[in-house]
Amino acid sequence: MPDMDPFRDLGDGNGTRVALMKATYEALSEHGYADLTIERIGEEFEKSVSLVYHHYDSKDALLVDFLEFMLDRFEADVAFDERDDARARLRALFDRVLSASIDDERRALMGAITELRAQAPHNEAFREQFARSDRFFHARIAAIIEAGIDQGVFRDVDPDRTAELLLTTINGAMIGRVTTAEEAPIRAVRAELDEYVRLRLLTDGAS
């Protein structure tokens, strides 16, 4: 997967929100959720801490906005290939989210998102953001499956159930990668997904 800087292409003139998101990202990466405070975010912010309080009345209010920002950027980064061949589109998706290795910038990004996902059972606003993002990816994967069925290269499977299986597997692999720092399981998951596509999805004429 290519390098992922969540603030790439945003420039320096995109206003206070982007500056706050960057400060939150830096502080969360350094201190983690439990030790994160508005004051520590303010230490990374180019303006005054009082301006942080002007926009957000609590750490969690800021983090909900931060999570929405980061998930929006992640969705844009994992832009889906629009080529006609559904097999190639699904393969491109696997290549991007289950690449053999990731750089430090992407690992930090995924670590920050994973840490916030761990808070979701106790935070309804976080749950809503992750549910929205999962619905986005589920819909896009299901669309690829539906296209493959229409093209005659995928069997007549249930697109929603298949998308749920693929998304759950991908999410689990990505969480495992950033919480264990192991790359070998990613390669194993990718190999099994390729085998699943070959045995479960591809029609006899396409395999």
Describe this structure in words.
With 207 residues, the protein is mainly α. 71% of the residues lie in helices and 0% in strands. It contains nine helices and no strands. The protein has helices at residues 15-31, 38-44, 49-55, 59-77, 86-97, 104-119, 124-151, 159-180, 184-201. α5 (86-97) runs antiparallel to α7. It is elongated and about 65 Å long. The model has no long low-confidence stretch (mean pLDDT 85).
Radius of gyration: 19 Å
First-to-last CA distance: 26 Å
Which term fits the overall shape?
A: elongated
Percent range for β-strand residues: under 5%
Secondary-structure-derived class: mainly alpha
One letter per element, helices H and strands E, the order comes to: HHHHHHHHH
Biggest sheet statistics: none
Annotation field: number of helices: 9
Instruction: List the uncertain runs.
Output: none
Number of strands: 0
Can you give the helix content as a percent range? over 70%
Nearest-integer average pLDDT? 85
